[in-house]
Design brief:
single chain, about 325 residues, alpha/beta, D-Maltodextrin-Binding Protein, domain 2, ten-stranded mixed sheet
Length: about 325
């Protein structure tokens, strides 16, 4: 082989070997969409928008939030699952990735196979709330009155299959209380029912109830987390009261399955920086949303654990899949 031909071949091989690296380094070269599977204005949407501007600054491209609500997050999730695996279409996934598995007989996606976890972003603790004027002043009152009330004590949530609903069912089992679930169309309706006295207690996240707690209309009885919240330090944990259960909504970023590992790694690195930004942390914490962060592997394990946990609760509660 002539030296000139050998040099040509070596040059071609070098060029081919460096092309993937160049392509990876070029990411992102255009705007990125983050799909929120809820309507605008809710907690998931708020968190996504709080993060998007800073994430865009770090990535050097705009990060645009797009709302695709419907079918208990299935519409937005399926959209991302079927998108090109190039890092330009992401999902702000929710706890529904775990709870939808036992609650629906058939899903238009497989969360374990069709999505690539990037990072867990937040945890949003579930609280037990009571109308300030009701006779339920504590968890002990709640349990006692549930057993002495014909038909059990009613509790409100934002809807069937929500994490607060399943938390209520888990507490019912753990405490052997007699509770009757009353689902509403969202947290706003559930809060109105509790404040109006139609339902004595509710299981919900803090954000929809925070203004009512501050006004004194609603009293937080307990938080379903291992430690108390800095926002409501006087509110005991259920664990302190003898019921060591943990329940929280959560959100995290995922990409379509097959997204290149370097792209996932880049996104993960920048998301961790966003979650450590003091301004972003303050915005989230003031709404009862705890920024956490994780590696892709940790997030994947988290989804699996949550799926197993809530599948067991759904089965124990006798909730039939739709």
């Amino acid at each position: 082989m002539q030296p000139r031909n050998l040099l040509t071949i070596l040059g071609t091989l070098t060029l081919l070997a460096t092309q993937p690296v160049v392509a990876q380094q070029a990411y992102p070269s255009r705007p990125i969409k983050v799909i929120v599977p809820y309507a605008a204005g809710g907690g998931t949407d708020t968190a996504a928008r709080a993060m998007s501007q800073k994430l865009g600054e770090l990535l050097g491209q705009p990060v645009i939030v797009e709302n695709r609500p419907g079918a208990s997050t299935q519409a937005g999730t399926a959209y991302v699952a079927k998108a090109a695996p190039d890092g330009y279409t992401l999902l702000m996934g929710t706890a529904n990735l775990a709870t939808n598995v036992p609650l629906f007989a058939k899903l238009p996606y497989n969360a374990q196979q069709d999505l690539a976890p990037v990072s867990l972003v937040t945890k949003v603790p579930v609280y037990v709330f009571a109308n300030a004027k009701s006779s339920v002043k504590s968890i002990a009152d709640l349990i006692a009155q549930s057993k002495s009330t014909a038909g059990g004590l009613s509790y409100a949530t934002a809807g069937n299959g929500s994490i607060p609903h399943l938390a209520g069912e888990l507490f019912k089992v753990e405490s052997k209380s007699h509770l009757e679930h009353i689902p509403y169309k969202g947290s706003a309706e559930a809060a109105t029912a509790v404040i109006g006295g139609q339902v004595p207690v509710s299981f919900d996240n803090l954000a929809p109830m925070l203004a009512h707690v501050k006004s004194g209309a609603v009293v937080p009885l307990a938080i379903a987390m291992p430690a108390r919240s800095s926002l409501l330090p006087n509110t005991p944990t259920l664990k302190e009261l003898g019921y060591p259960m943990e329940a929280y909504s959560w959100w995290g970023i995922l990409a379509p399955h097959g997204t290149p590992a370097p792209v996932v790694e880049r996104l993960n690195k920048e998301i961790q920086k966003v979650l450590q930004t003091p301004k972003i942390r303050e915005v989230l914490l003031q709404q009862g949303i705890e920024p956490v962060g994780s590696t892709p592997a940790e997030f994947a394990a988290h989804i699996q654990q949550e799926t197993a946990k809530w599948t067991q609760v759904v089965t124990s509660a006798g909730i039939k899949p739709e």
